[in-house]
Amino acid sequence: MIGIIVFNILMVGLGAVVGSGAVSADRLSGALYWLHGIIGITSPAPEKARMFALIWIGSMLVIVDGLLFMFVFLVTHSM
After folding, report:
1. Does 67 score more than 90 pLDDT?
2. Phi and psi dihedrals of 41, rounded to 5?
3. What is the pTM of this model?
4. Half-sphere exposure of 46 (CA within 13 A, CB side)
5. How far is it between the farthest Cα atoms of the chain?
């Protein structure tokens, strides 16, 4: 339970740091280039790197929390 809370706090904090502009666009662009290269999709333009980073952070929050919720829901209702 503590791990889930810490994960959410860190992800929201990361989103706040990225959204506030504390991280340079070059660093974000490089990280997104690496991430998109692993997945095999086209990297965004450097001027859109901040928006794409926020989309990735939000997506990770929704996916991880959704999977954990479904796991807990299915386990508690299957017994």
Report:
1. yes
2. -120, 165
3. 0.84
4. 6
5. 51
